[in-house]
Amino acid sequence: MIKTLTTFECTYLLKRNYIGYLGYIFNNRPYVVPITYYYDDIENTIIGYSGIGHKIKALRNNGLVSLEVAEIDSVSNWKSVLAHGIYREFEGSSAKINLHKFSERVKDVIKIKEGKHLSHISEFSSKIFKEGIPVVFQIEIEELTGRERQY
């Protein structure tokens, strides 16, 4: 049986994960790419970062996006959330603050979910800067839907 998740269940799934699939449109074609993210439950936004490339160019052109996050144990045991929202970029000191918050929050989720204490999060942060100044962005969530199947 497939059940609809409540808003609380949807946000809980977003909070306890850090990898999702970002959907966007570029040149009238849909694209879906994996991203690392964190869910800011206070602001009800998804925070991410990227170098300037195909994805960022597309998102600057059309800011309507979706993010899908799933936990799949088997074909008959899974949960999935789809967040629809609007892409916005942070600038200046706000971008730096949110990039730091992103690094710390992802580290926290990995520690809780996987039991790993990441000493390499600093390597992760320095890698971000070695590849050039990243674009730090948020997705302002407008709608959340979720489904679950447990057999």
Return the structural class: alpha+beta
**First and last CA, distance:** 7 Å
**If you average the pLDDT, what whole number results?**
90
Q: What is the count of DSSP helices, taking H or I runs of 4+ residues?
A: 4
Which residues sit in consecutive blocks of at least 5 with pLDDT less than 50? none
Give the strand tally. Answer: 8
How does this model look, in words?
InterPro entries: Pyridox_Oxase-rel (IPR024747), Split_barrel_FMN-bd (IPR012349). Pfam families: Pyridox_ox_2. This is Pyridoxamine 5'-phosphate oxidase family protein. The chain has 151 residues and is of the alpha+beta class. The chain is built from four helices and eight strands. It has helices spanning 7-15, 54-61, 92-114, 121-130, and strands spanning 2-4, 19-26, 29-36, 38-40, 45-50, 64-74, 77-89, 135-150. Strands 1, 2, 3, 4, 5, 6, 7 and 8 form an eight-stranded antiparallel β-sheet that branches. The radius of gyration is 16 Å and the shape is globular.
Kindly summarize this structure in a few lines:
The chain is an alpha+beta fold.
Task: Sum up the structure in keywords.
151 residues, alpha+beta, eight-stranded antiparallel β-sheet, 8 strands, 33% helix, globular, Pyridoxamine 5'-phosphate oxidase family protein, Pyridox_Oxase-rel
Task: Walk me through the topology.
Layout: E1 2-4, H1 7-15, E2 19-26, E3 29-36, E4 38-40, E5 45-50, H2 54-61, E6 64-74, E7 77-89, H3 92-114, H4 121-130, E8 135-150
Antiparallel strand pairs: 1-8, 2-3, 2-6, 4-5, 5-8, 6-7, 7-8
